[in-house]
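thread: overnight batch results

M.L. [08:02]
morning all. the overnight job finished for the chain we discussed friday. pasting input first so we're all looking at the same thing
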Amino acid sequence: MANETMYGVEDALSMNEGVGSWSDLKYRLIQYYGRLFTKSMRGKWKGLVYVDLYAGAGQSRVKGTGEILLGSPLIALSLDVQFDQYIFCEQDLTKLEALKARVARLFPTANVTFIHGDCNVQIDNILKRIQRNTLGLCFIDPYDLGIQFETIRKLADYRLDLLCLLALHMDANRAYSRYIKASSTKVDLFVGTADWRSEWDAIVKAKKDFAIFLAVYFAKRMESLGFKETPTHTMHLVRTDDTNVPKYHLALFSRDSLAYKFWEDVRKYSTDQRGFAFPPISTDS
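M.L. [08:03]
and the structure it wrote out:
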């Protein structure tokens, strides 16, 4: 397999079916950040680790076109400068077995740990596999607001940059009437507190956007864990290709200013057009 490819091939294994064509943009952003991360950090730490909490099957089929995209685990494995260790967690056993088979075929010598289950349940098992004195990149790519703040609190005990998909438009806005009910704990678990309700009640009459409110609130909660400030304008908004409807934000959370410089470089060279090309990375990075 050629290094840093974006596209997979048809095989007999399970895939992540029916993803939107805008997923191409998401994966390119991940790919370029991974390139900057590994190239710049190689040799400065005991090791580099990549963690994927919603790893999927390793390949995704685009709805409507049938195009096959590599998923984030195979993208991370195909970078020119490798991580020393990879940890992939996936709840769907069929997808996990497909990922295992693809990794065994394409990257047989890679140091990969596979964990079956909900990442919120398996987080202690995931973290105990990470060696101390390593630097890591953790990709969090849920379909909804399923990642729990307590999980992130545990991740924060390690030296990890977190690249998070915040499903605030495709889930929080869509399920708004359900999530604001007192009986719903989905948002409470996502931000780690029920206090968000009083703040939202205070501004709802001003017709503030629920998704943006949660983006700001979540970022503030991340600051409480020691991550640097992450304003909403640094969160990359991904939209549908056809109707330009907002889907989700990709947000970086780190304790290191250099990580945010990398992220700005990634965002600077991205567009909302599929297939954009990133510039080569200088050997002086």
